[in-house]
Amino acid sequence: MARVRQNGAYKLSRARCAYTVWMTGLPTDRYSKDFLAGWAAMDFNGHMANTAYLNLAADVRMSFFAEHGFEPGELRKLAVGPVIRKDEVEYFREVGLHETVTVTYAVLAMSADGARFVVENEIWTANGERAATVRSTGGWLDLRARKLIPPPPALLAAFTQSPRASGFVELPPKESRQAAGDV
């Protein structure tokens, strides 16, 4: 699958197919990856299952970190990994078998130390319609101590390179959240 930007729109074309689709709704200020909705991603109703949206969102987040020097093996060496405490999925359009989707990634909110965050993934159809939005609240887990921690400096530097969504906010320090009774 090739994606070429022309005049603010994306043109997707397959080497073996005779069609081209223009994507006009896809945000250009976010990290993104293209995927094919395969058989394993379908539910009984013949469209993409809810868990498939969550899996694609996680795959794109991990791809971002891999491309910025933190492949899964490196995270294991550091004994740190992202942990999601809450996912919210909002659906707009169905995605069917063998449809190409583009999954975007941006940060909605992050604490100054990077320990806590809210990220957003959008799933777009090949014709430029938003199929779903996934918002995930999480943090970085020390895999040995099993507690949330700020990421190591190099990982924080990579994380701060994540595209920021419009309306990005800095999360308050953990101490002020605990004082307010919010953990």
Structure description:
The protein is an alpha+beta fold and 183 residues long. The protein has a single domain (28-171), classed as Roll (Thiol Ester Dehydrase, Chain A), CATH 3.10.129. The protein is built from four helices and ten strands, in the order ββββααβββββαβα. The strands form two sheets. Strands 4, 5, 6, 7, 8, 9 and 10 form a seven-stranded mixed β-sheet that branches. A three-stranded antiparallel β-sheet has the order 1-2-3, with no helix packed on it. β8 (130-142) and β9 form a beta hairpin. Mean pLDDT is 86; it is low at 1-24.
Blueprint of the fold:
Layout: E1 2-6, E2 9-13, E3 20-23, E4 31-36, H1 50-67, H2 72-78, E5 80-91, E6 100-111, E7 116-125, E8 130-142, E9 147-149, H3 153-159, E10 164-171, H4 174-179
Parallel strand pairs: 6-10
Antiparallel strand pairs: 1-2, 2-3, 4-6, 5-8, 6-7, 7-8, 8-9
Task: Give a summary of the structure in a few sentences.
The chain is of the alpha+beta class and 183 residues long. Helix content is 21%, strand content 43%.
Short descriptors:
4 helices, three-stranded antiparallel sheet, alpha+beta, disordered N terminus, 21% helix, Thiol Ester Dehydrase, Chain A
